C-alpha cells in the first residue's frame, strides 16, 4: 500500500538532511511501526507521506502509483492522519459535529452523504457528544473524535503520529484497542510513529527503527519481542525500554 524509496528531506536547501535515504514498504491491511527517540526524523517522514511537507527527494508510492509532490484532492480521501495532541488538532470554537463535516466539505461531498452518528458510534462515542466543544470532552474522547474525523471519508490508510502519548496511561490501551478493531473491521493500513516500543509491539506486525534520520534496522514484531535485533542502536532502544518499564 505504501512504498518509500530513498526519501531524503532537508528543511533548508544546502543544509544537512534531517532524513536520509529512508526506504520501506507497508503491505495493505497491516500496521507498520516507525520507532526511535525524539528528534530522529520519524514524524518528518510521516509529514512527507501526508503531503504536509512536499519538499523531499526520493519517491513515495501509494497502492502502486507514484505520488506528486503536491497531493491532489483524491489523495486525502484515501490517506488521513491522526495527530499526537487531540486538543491541538481540533478547533476550540467549533462543535464536534461541525468538525466532522469539514472533511466532507473539503472534498466537495454532500454533508448528508455520511451518517455522522454511525461514525461516532464506531469509535465508541455517543452521538449526543457531537454538539459539544472540544474543551467539554476528556482527552480520550477528543482522540476518539480525531479518529472519527479521519474515518469520515472512509480512507484506506491512517498515518498515526504518537496517537496515545498525550493521553493518560489508563486511556492509552482503550485507544490502541479501538485502532486495532477499526483496522480489522475496515481493512485499514496503518503507519504508526512512536517512541514507545510497547505501543508498537501491541499494534504492529513489522517495525523500522530510526536513528538520526536513518533507518538502521527493520524487523518483524516477534524478533523485536525476543530482543533479536542486530544494530547497536536497536539494542540500546530495547534496553532503555526495559529499564523504563521497571522504573515505572
TrEMBL record:
Keywords: ATP-binding, Nucleotide-binding, Plasmid, Transport. PROSITE patterns: ABC_TRANSPORTER_1, ABC_TRANSPORTER_2. One of its GO terms (biological process) is transmembrane transport. Transmembrane segments: none annotated. The keyword Signal does not apply. Residues 2-237 form the ABC transporter domain. One of its GO terms (molecular function) is ATP hydrolysis activity. The keyword ATP-binding applies. Pfam families: ABC_tran (PF00005). Belongs to the ABC transporter superfamily. This is ABC transporter ATP-binding protein. It comes from Rhizobium sullae (Rhizobium hedysari). The lineage of its organism: Bacteria, Pseudomonadati, Pseudomonadota, Alphaproteobacteria, Hyphomicrobiales.
